[in-house]
């Protein structure tokens, strides 16, 4: 039986939403789904090598950011990069950096981004992937 | 299976995922299921409330047999047969 496909348009550069994406990726990995992730605009900032581990911006409930980050630590929740890495190890996950998004954040080649990224692509590939997916998400 | 039957069940594989939150226990189960043969029983220990609902659904999707859940002190013991 062919694996189900998840297509994730990842726009966010905020660790709260990236952590949520990591949880969903875990669910996809448990079910052997094929996953295509398209790293758009602000997410490209978070995927830059110099930002991935230091970026601690949150998108929502910003006044409780310290409490939120402390809770993640207390619960031993993996950093989003670790959650993404685990998903990649367990199922077929491909991470594509949008070329335009990369340039916005001065990332011009694959080596400018963390090793989780597989390639730099255009929006046409996203459209094709989204058309073929069983589940489409925008985070 | 009822609670008494589950308590008597001898699992070939035990996965202790009590230190992790969702989706940790599910991923631990996924990793461990490859280490047992078809027909063998695995137990997953989890303190995560969501896991007791996730594992049965996961079993249905993956073709495993969910056998039942025992409530222990502060955690769940979830049984399935590959």
List the total number of helices of chain A.
6
Quaternary class: heterodimer
Based on secondary structure, the structural category of chain B is alpha+beta
CATH C-level class of chain A: Alpha Beta
Largest interface: A-B, 12 and 14 residues
* Largest sheet properties of chain A: 5 strands, parallel
Physical arrangement of strands within the biggest beta sheet of chain B? 1-2-4-3
Reported for the largest beta sheet of chain B, the result is: 4 strands, mixed
Which structural category do the helix and sheet elements of chain A fall into? Answer: alpha/beta
Descriptive labels:
heterodimer; A: 139 residues; alpha/beta; Hypothetical Protein Ychn, Chain: A; five-stranded parallel sheet; 5 strands; globular; B: 82 residues; alpha+beta; Translation Initiation Factor IF3; four-stranded mixed sheet
Question: Quick gist of this model?
Answer:
Chain A is an alpha/beta fold and 139 residues long. Chain A has six helices and five strands; from the N terminus they run βαβαααβαβαβ. Chain B has a four-stranded mixed β-sheet with strand order 1-2-4-3.
Detailed description of the structure:
Chain A has a single domain (5-138), classed as Hypothetical Protein Ychn, Chain: A (3-Layer(aba) Sandwich), CATH 3.40.1260. Chain A is 43% helix and 18% strand. Chain A has helices at residues 15-30, 41-47, 65-74, 80-90, 99-104, 123-132, and strands spanning 5-10, 34-39, 93-98, 119-121, 135-138. The model of chain A has no long low-confidence stretch (mean pLDDT 97). With 82 residues, chain B is of the alpha+beta class. Chain B has a single domain (3-81), classed as 2-Layer Sandwich (Translation Initiation Factor IF3). Chain B is globular and about 30 Å long. The mean pLDDT of chain B is 95. The A-B interface holds A 23, 26-27, 29-32, 75-77, 86, 90 and B 19-24, 26-27, 29-31, 58, 61-62.
């Amino acid at each position: 039986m062919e694996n189900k496909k998840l297509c994730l348009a990842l726009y966010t550069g905020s660790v709260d939403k990236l952590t949520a994406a990591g949880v969903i990726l875990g669910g996809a990995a448990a079910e052997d789904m094929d996953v295509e992730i398209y790293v758009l605009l602000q997410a490209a900032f978070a995927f830059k090598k110099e930002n991935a581990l230091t970026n601690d911006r949150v998108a929502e409930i910003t006044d409780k950011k310290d409490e939120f980050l402390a809770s993640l630590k207390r619960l031993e929740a993996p950093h989003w990069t670790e959650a993404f890495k685990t998903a990649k190890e367990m199922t077929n996950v491909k991470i594509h950096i949008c070329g335009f998004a990369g340039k916005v954040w001065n990332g011009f080649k694959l080596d400018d981004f963390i090793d989780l990224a597989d390639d730099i692509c255009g929006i046409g590939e996203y459209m094709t992937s989204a058309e073929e997916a069983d589940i489409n998400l925008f985070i | 299976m009822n609670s008494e039957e589950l308590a008597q069940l001898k699992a070939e594989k035990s996965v202790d995922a009590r230190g992790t939150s969702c989706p940790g226990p599910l991923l631990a189960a996924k990793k461990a299921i490859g280490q047992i043969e078809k027909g063998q029983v695995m137990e997953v220990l989890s303190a995560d409330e969501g896991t007791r609902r996730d594992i049965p659904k996961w079993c249905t999707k993956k073709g495993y047999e969910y056998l039942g859940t025992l409530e222990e002190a502060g955690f769940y013991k979830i049984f399935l047969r590959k």
